[in-house]
Design brief:
249 residues, alpha/beta, Rossmann fold, globular, binds adenosine-5'-diphosphate, binds magnesium ion
């Protein structure tokens, strides 16, 4: 059975897409066809960051949620992982399916047609507390919450956790895998304070590995590569590698 890992945060810019791309690389580099990433964000950053041109795609995850048997047509095989990409078509999904009884399980139904092929499936989601977040969490059995070391991001963790609890009522298979501190700046006492507060509050639910602020991470995106390929010796690449080892997915 595949593990389906949702990466969610109600706040934007917390490192969700980077986490999905770089964890998928760590787990997929030795067996790329065993790992799938799903871009469930109309902004399509994961799609573009993986080297695809969103507006040129004939099939995307939107086709899969519209018609589950079309889901497999969207899969693109890459050097480190397979991807189910997105483009702007996905932006209308919440309105398109608003009246459907199963509107929160559209992604789950789409992925159920292809999940047996994969050991790990990572879902990248937009900062959202409704359609996209519900679908992402309903389709998953584990959730990772990236927590950017900034006060607003810390505040957003409560609403993200509430959402996870809400979905758990319908999807009891869903469990919190980890809260991951991202963009940690060791020069700032703010980063250390937020790390301490988070660890005091969420204890072992917080990953020991912290993702530092590191310019190689955004630079790698311009190269359409995971940071582990672009700059394998960078602090960012080493952190994602350590995180993958710690999470043991
Ligand atoms: N650890 C980091 N250090 C420096 N920049 C980062 C780091 N993680 C992410 N970024 C950059 O910050 C921006 C937002 O990250 P991203 O992963 O896209 O967040 P989200 O998907 O939550 O919006 C991107 O430009 C990304 O390259
Ligand atoms: Mg993103």
């Amino acid at each position: 059975m595949s593990e389906v890992i949702a990466v969610v945060s109600h706040k934007g810019g917390t490192g969700k897409t980077s986490l999905v791309q770089n964890l998928a690389y760590e787990y997929g580099k030795s067996d790329p066809s065993s790992v799938l990433v799903v871009d469930f964000d109309p902004q399509s950053n994961l799609t573009a960051g993986s080297g695809l041109i969103p507006q040129d795609l004939n099939y995307t995850i939107f086709h899969g949620i519209n018609q589950p048997k079309e889901c497999e047509k969207g899969i693109v095989s890459g050097p480190y992982y397979d991807i189910l990409p997105a483009n702007l078509d996905l932006a209308i999904a919440d309105q398109r399916f608003a009246g459907d009884k199963d509107r929160n399980d559209k992604l789950g139904k789409a992925l159920s047609t292809i999940s047996s092929r994969y050991r790990l499936i990572f879902i990248d989601s937009p900062p959202n507390l409704s359609f996209f977040a519900f679908n992402t969490l309903t389709a998953a059995n584990q959730v990772i919450i990236p927590l950017q070391c900034q006060p607003y991001a810390y505040q957003a963790i409560d609403s993200t956790m509430k959402l996870v609890e809400l979905v758990q009522e319908k999807n009891p298979n869903l469990s919190l895998k980890s809260i991951v501190l991202t963009m940690y700046d060791k020069r700032l006492s703010l980063s250390k304070s937020l790390k301490d507060i988070t660890r005091r509050r969420f204890k072992t639910q917080v990953a020991k590995t912290v993702i530092p602020i590191n310019v190689s991470i955004p630079e790698a995106i311009l190269d359409h590569a995971p940071v582990g390929v672009y700059a394998p010796r960078s602090t960012g690449a080493r952190a994602y590698k350590g995180l993958a080892k710690e999470l043991k997915l």
